[in-house]
Amino acid sequence: MTTPRPFSLGIVGAGQFSGQFSKLWHAHPLVTDIFVTDLLPERAEALVERQSLAGTFATFATFDEMLASDVDAVAIFTQRWTHGPLVVQALRAGKHVYSAVPMAFTVEEVSDIIDAVRETGLTYMMGETSYYNPATVYGRKQRESGAFGRIFYAEGDYVHDMDLGFYAAYEYSGGEAWKSTASYPPMHYPTHAIGGVLGATGGHAVSVSCIGVRDDRGDGVFDKDISMFDNDFSNATALFEMADGGSMRINEFRRVGYPSHLRESRFRIFGTEGSFEQLVATSVWQNKEGWTDITADLESRPSMSLDDPSLADVDPALRDAFVSGLAPVHDAGRLPAELQGLPNGHEGSHHFLVDDFARAVAYGTIPTVNAWEAARYTVPGIIAHQSALRGGERLPVPDFGDAPESLS
After folding, report:
1. Which position among 41, 57, 120, 361 has the lowest Cβ density within 10 Å, counted as fewest Cβ atoms?
2. Eight-state DSSP code of residue 318
3. pLDDT band for position 2 (50/70/90)?
4. Confidence band (pLDDT; 50, 70, 90) for 200?
5. Which pLDDT value is given to residue 317?
6. What confidence score (pLDDT) does residue 310 get?
7. Dihedral angle, C-alpha 258, 260, 262, 263, nearest 10 °
8. Considering all CA atoms of the chain, what is the largest pairwise distance in Å, rounded to the nearest integer?
9. How far apart, in whole angstroms, are the C-alpha atoms of residue 265 and residue 294?
10. Are 383 and 190 in contact (CB under 8 A)?
């Protein structure tokens, strides 16, 4: 193994989410100084002070100023429709990039990111939490062992009701015009569902038919007259044809009577020899002989209290996502000792995502959720929304291929 090269990191966006990751990178042995920038300078300064990051000059006034500096990499935690152009700008400025989900808002933006990664040879990673969701980890192990047989059908649900934290999150990030941004099309945020399925089963989608449900709450959210996305779908269901001849169904629900704070992503995978199913509090493995309750193997242990001071800036309705730790199915032994005992989140995924990116940059390797993998989690949802706008018309899903073995 080559000798690692520790690197400095700039955090772009100091909102409710980024602080949970900056704390982990600050502790990671492969990351040196951490810097922060935000459109609201006081938020950047507060994060630096709260976590004792890089010292007196740890903030940059603007994103451009950060890119002009000698910071080695940036982690982008801005609003979800802004990621694509910011990622490309950072790559072209010579920075490695970690990006929150989704990868981009359009297929063209996805293509631009892949071109930039290929041409610069720099690291790009999308921080898809479901790749390390215990259900996905379990499913991946079962597939690799051959226990499923041929996987011919899978389901992924991202069931996060607007009433359970999303109103507050959009108000926090969107300012006075937050209702225009809260109408973000559900299928443009597909990676928690698609990433969990493909992270377990592999493969990619080749076509889709999607039905969108038009909202009727009447509160100004998902209202075409207000929406900056011209969107009034609050729920959507898509059926994808897979490259291997199987199928995948994805649900993206924002108005749903479901306890999203207990489990916001859930999965089902069916094969010719075995199958896996998950509900809010139960997970089972099944084959032709019977079934096994595997709930305990997939149960994330709390990583901290909901009243932890580090969650002071996080809306109470969203805090459950930031306190879940490792599950028995996780490979805790691969993580640096420095991360042990630190807050985790999203069913134990945060530690692994932070470590994946740190290792990829420091060793010059391609990360798990690289640009090509991220495209397969993102593009199908973009096309699914187009299908819903066309009454469920079946549309082809473009694919950018497999990741190369190296970028050098």
Report:
1. 57
2. G
3. confident
4. very high
5. 55
6. 63
7. 100
8. 64
9. 17
10. no
For residue 304, is pLDDT > 70?
no
- List strands edge to edge, sheet with 31-37: 31-37, 7-12, 73-76, 96-99, 124-126
Structure tokens at 208: 């889709």
Please tell us whether the domain made up of 131-323+370-396 is placed in CATH 1.10.260.40. no
Nearest to 107 by CA among 357, 384, 370, 367: 384
Q: Quote the tokens at residue 328.
A: 């028995």
CB distance 149 to 273 below 8 Å = yes
Q: Is 197 helix (H, G, I), strand (E, B) or coil?
A: helix
pTM over 0.85: yes
SS3 329: coil
If you count them, how many residues does the chain have? Answer: 408
Q: Residue ranges of the domains in the chain?
A: 131-323+370-396
> Which of 83, 107, 81, 86 has the alpha carbon at shortest distance from 380?
107
Residue 32 has pLDDT above 90, yes or no: yes
In terms of Cβ atoms closer than 10 Å to its own Cβ (0-12, 13-18, 19+), residue 218 is: exposed
* Cis status of the peptide bond prior to 85, with omega within 30 of 0: no
Confidence of residue 151 (pLDDT cuts 50, 70, 90): very high
Cβ proximity of 360 and 125 under 8 Å: yes
Paired tokens of 406: 């190296």
Amino acid at 161: D
